[in-house]
Design brief:
By secondary structure, the protein is mainly alpha-helical. About 60% of the residues lie in helices and about 10% in strands. It has a three-stranded antiparallel beta sheet with strand order 2-1-3, sandwiched between helices. The chain starts with 6 loop residues before the first helix and ends with a helix.
């Protein structure tokens, strides 16, 4: 049976993932366990997150795991946003910073000069992260359905 998650929880998962966290949605009780991704946050204080980590590790089949976007996916989101900018000189500036070293930092710095675009970017990025969560949920539901068929 497919798991459905309320839109406000999907949004919460998207926000946590954007901050580099891993999220685990309990399939039956709807609870959410969240802790840092060890690869993205080396040296994090594991003791603080121990309870959440143990819950998931002891019963992995009870959860749907959600992971942040890979850097290549996050870069694609920035590129898509830049490509959608209507003012050609501004679009060219954004595409230029994306072709240089440190594209994430440069993109963020460039947004500082364009407050209206900055607000559009936050909305756009949120929408894309929400879609990222929905895509992972769909994949998890398909995987579960395939396991049921076997």
């Amino acid at each position: 049976m497919p798991v459905e998650i309320a839109s406000e929880i999907i949004k919460q998962i998207a926000e946590e993932l954007e901050m580099g966290m891993l999220c685990f949605y309990h399939k039956t009780d709807g609870s959410l366990e969240v802790y840092p991704d060890e690869l993205s946050n080396p040296g994090f204080d594991e003791e603080f997150w121990e309870e959440a980590m143990e819950k998931v590790e002891e019963n992995p089949g009870d959860y749907i795991a959600f992971e942040p976007m890979r850097s290549s996916e996050a870069f694609r989101v920035m590129k898509d946003f830049a490509d959608g900018i209507g003012h050609i000189p501004t679009k060219n500036k954004f595409n230029d910073v994306l072709s240089q070293k440190k594209p994430f930092a440069n993109f963020d710095n460039m947004l500082g000069y364009y407050p209206d675009l900055r607000q559009e970017w936050f909305k756009y990025k949120e929408e894309r992260y929400i879609q990222h969560v929905k895509d992972q949920l769909e994949t998890a539901n398909l995987d579960e359905a395939n396991e049921d068929d076997e």
